[in-house]
Amino acid sequence: MxxxxxxxxxxxxxxxxxxxxxxxxxxxxxxxxxxxxxxxxTLGMRRKNTYQNFMEYFCxxxxxxxxxxxxxxxxIFYFKDFVLLGIRFTKYHICLFTQIVxxxxxxxxxxxxxxxxxxxxxxxxxxxxxxxxxxxxxFFTVVLIWISVFAYVLGDAAIYQNLQAQNVYSHxxxxxxxxxxxxxxxxxxxxxxMAFIASWSEVITLVQAIRVTSYxxxxxxxxxxxxxxxxxxxxxxxxxxxxxxxFLGTWLPFVLLQIIILLFxxxxxxYIEMNIPWLYFVNSFLIATVCWLHGHQPLxxxxxxxxxxxxxxxxxxxxxxVNNLEQMEKPISIIIC
Length: 337
Known about the structure:
The chain is built from twelve helices and eight strands. It is mostly helical.
């Protein structure tokens, strides 16, 4: 398999023996199988008591599409050449189906990012619909976005020409590289870098001051602070390092991976790059951003925050005078990462 950008889909190809195509198809099946196992593992590790939100529904739909693609190409790979409902399927349809899915995944990053951002903003603003109506809205929104992008991919003339080229050069199977994911990753890494530079001293101080304890039969991290200081609680600048520490405490390996991909300009096919860990990473970034933009107000009330499947963003603070967290009936500072 060869991963190329959409601009290079019509480039010249060199002949390859048939067994190399079969090896590539086998590798494709293994890659998709590994991706599905990663999807299942990620969905199994997430917190189950999170609120309904758009990203949760989209992640489940992505896992379903991945599974559907794997089943289809596995059947074609096993039977190699067969007729179903008057349509002849061969091993070259493996590449065709994967190409269509790659183009679809590649065009989904911006719409999903925008819709998830709007969803979190509305959740913070407490403008939610009734529970059943909200579930239906999320369901139909996810269905609509999939249908819209699929229709765009199948109806775009340039994409159609690239897919037609596959019939001519059937020995070679290029896959679309999404420019959307590159710029989205670049923007998030740059924002994290600027935020860290703006508050690096506070971040280091917080990391050094972190304490680990048990509260309500759960292991928690908390950040002591002076009870006479209102800066740590009331200002956005005071909240920024706490959000950075909590976010990087969960997603630091993924951030480093994104930096490596950007620095070395690693080209990853879109059908691999659009995955559930990536979506949850984007989800955590959006929750942190929206929460910080709202300032301290939602953090100091007993309101329910949009829960992240991997990071708890409810930040309260513990005065230095408190020695035993278990003795507090209702502590005013807990950050769980």
